[in-house]
Specification:
- The protein has 594 residues and is an alpha+beta fold.
- 50% of the residues lie in helices and 20% in strands.
- It has 14 helices and 17 strands.
- The strands form 4 sheets. The protein has a 5-stranded antiparallel beta sheet with strand order 2-1-5-4-3. A 5-stranded antiparallel beta sheet has the order 7-6-10-9-8.
- The longest helix is centred in the N-terminal third of the chain and has 58 residues.
- The protein is elongated.
């Protein structure tokens, strides 16, 4: 085991790798060298044979070939200085050997190997095994006036060449072994200079892995190892800072998740919860535990099939006893992808109850507008058709009553359209307010005068109560008059005879001025208070239409007050009365002098 640990050390791994690389390099070099050496020797032998063949062809000449005199040819071959190991043959145009330096018995035999030369090939070379040795065969054509008369054929043994290659190989192997030994010793020494500092860095890294980032590595040189040690120390410092920053970021992320207005649930690829925030638990009204299946957390009609690879949305209705309190949650499922593979799922829960409520209100608004316009139009059309028939015109009183009803319905439509246009302009912020400093006492006194006659007719006790030294308000007189007219008109309409209405104003602690209209009328049921400022919303539709209301007065009042920077509230007890309060900003806020 000890030797195994030593061998597994970086030091011996470097030595082993260095030795293997050197051995592989030497082998590759040897293979290439031997290949090139053999190729060089073969090329040299071929060139030598080609020169010999060319010399033989020049000495023999075409005349000797034409005579085909074997003795003359043999004599010419004997006169040439040729390598005795090689066999030279002169072949005529029919392929028969007519002269040779070898065994005379081969004469008069046919040399089929030179057929390509006799057929027009310029040179022919080939290496063949023969009698336990390898031979190189070479041949050149003998021509006259482009006609092939014969060929020169040389057969050379290659034993001596291979012996030379073997001797060179043995010398190279000896040099390689000596180089390997010397390089190994040098590699061991060099590896120690590299591995000792790395070993120290490894020990420090092990300590860092256990959480101690205060250790430092000794820098002993300015080379790459020394730079590595310096970089390691720098890394340790950055890790300390990064971990500290990571803890801060983690705390901030947890704080963001905990305080998000939307619910968030994260799962792994199998659909098990790994992260959730408090808002998700509040919206689902249940405790979410880590490791719980998402299909158990969310009461879905169609459970999720994991892994989820595509983004999708759905809506979840949480049942409540009261239909008005039913919660609608929008669920957005977003897969977490890594290399195009789903490794998790993020579920975002959004409470869209208000959006759904606004959508229903919009539809109700369109329906109400259609109904409010259709009713007077139907009345006007019916009366005009009766007048057009002519029978009513014979009775002046009936005709006058028909015309009066038609005019009233037309005025009702005019008021409705005017209120709708005003609301549209207020929504689009296209209404220009001519704001000026206004004394509120004058504005409220004038409003009380306008409704005093109606109150006396219904025997309603109208009281005006103003606090002394009220600050001026910065407002549009016409718009504030409209707010007062709408609120006082409602108070007079819905207050029975003999009851009381009060109009008052006071300065609030924040400097704003608060105006209150209180009546002892029929009041508003508690279930209707949240929707009382909605457009066309009426508690008693039949009574409101009979009294001539459009259902837009409170909505217009709220938009005007908000456009002035104030607020409006309504309090009511059914059967006891209603109080409406709105605030307006002062023109000159008071500054306390120290």
């Amino acid at each position: 085991m000890k030797w195994l640990r030593i061998f597994n050390s970086v030091h011996w791994k470097l030595v082993t790798i260095y030795g293997l690389l050197l051995l592989i390099s030497m082998q590759l070099i040897g293979v290439y060298f031997f290949k090139e050496l053999k190729s060089t020797f073969e090329n040299n032998l071929e060139n030598s044979l080609e020169k010999q063949a060319g010399s033989i062809r020049s000495v023999i000449g075409t005349s000797a070939m034409a005579d085909s005199d074997r003795k003359k040819l043999d004599k010419l071959l004997d006169q040439l200085t040729l390598d005795k190991k090689n066999t030279v043959q002169i072949v005529n145009q029919d392929g028969f050997i007519i002269a040779t330096t070898g065994d005379d018995s081969s004469q008069a035999q046919k040399n089929t190997w030179v057929n390509p030369i006799l057929q027009g090939k310029e040179k022919l070379t080939k290496i063949i095994p023969k009698a336990g040795n390898r031979y190189m065969l070479f041949s050149l054509p003998i021509k006259k006036d482009g006609k092939v008369l014969g060929a020169v054929y040389i057969e050379a043994p290659m034993r001596e060449m291979y012996e030379n290659i073997r001797n060179i190989t043995e010398i190279l192997i000896k040099i390689t072994v000596v180089s390997m030994v010397g390089s190994s010793v040098l590699g061991i020494v060099l590896a120690r200079t590299i591995t000792n500092p790395i070993k120290e860095i490894t020990e420090q890294a092990t300590v860092m892995a256990e959480g101690d980032f205060d250790r430092q590595v000794t820098v002993k040189s300015d080379d790459e190892i020394g730079k590595l040690a310096s970089a390691f120390n720098h890394l340790a410092q950055h890790l300390r800072d990064a971990l500290s920053q990571n803890e801060e970021e983690k705390g901030r992320l947890q704080s963001v998740l905990a305080n998000m207005s939307d619910g968030v649930i994260a799962t792994n690829r199998k659909g098990r919860v790994i992260v959730s925030n408090r808002r998700a638990e509040e919206m689902l009204d249940k405790k979410i535990s880590d490791g719980e299946a998402i299909n158990q957390v969310l009461p879905l009609a169609n459970p999720l099939v994991f892994p989820v690879t595509e983004e999708r949305q759905t809506f979840l209705e949480l049942d409540a006893q009261d239909e008005e309190e039913q919660t609608i949650i929008k669920l957005t499922f977003t897969p977490v992808l890594r290399a195009k593979e789903a490794v998790g799922l993020i579920v975002v829960l959004q409470d869209v109850t208000e959006e759904d409520k606004l959508d229903r209100q919009r539809k109700e608004f369109v329906a109400n507008v259609s109904h409010e316009l259709r009713t007077p139009l139907t009345t006007i059309k019916s009366y005009l058709e009766a007048l057009d028939e002519g029978g009513v015109m014979e009775e002046p009183e009936l005709a006058s009553r028909f015309m009066r009803v038609t005019r009233q319905e037309a005025e009702r439509m005019t008021r409705l359209i005017h209120d709708l246009l005003q609301l549209s302009r207020l929504d689009a912020e296209k209404v220009r307010f001519r704001k000026v400093p206004l004394p509120l006492e004058t504005v409220l006194s004038d409003a009380a005068d306008r409704f005093s006659f109606q109150c006396r007719q219904k025997e309603i006790d109208f009281q005006l109560s103003l606090e002394e030294d009220l600050p001026r308000v910065y407002a549009d007189r016409d718009q504030i008059d409209q707010v007062l007219d709408n609120l006082l008109s409602n108070a007079v309409k819905y207050t029975p005879e003999g009851k009381k209405i009060s109009l008052s104003a006071r300065k609030c602690s924040d400097g704003y001025v608060q105006v209150s209209i209180a009546d002892k009328g029929i009041g508003i049921p508690k279930k209707d208070l949240e929707r009382i400022f909605e457009r066309f919303y009426r508690v008693d539709k039949a009574r409101s239409r009979r009294l001539g209301g459009t259902g837009l007065g409170l909505s217009i009042a709220r938009e005007i007050v908000r456009a002035h920077g104030g607020s409006i509230q309504l309090e009511s007890t059914y059967g006891k009365g209603t109080t409406v309060r709105f605030t307006l900003p002062p023109c000159e806020p008071e500054v306390t002098q120290l």
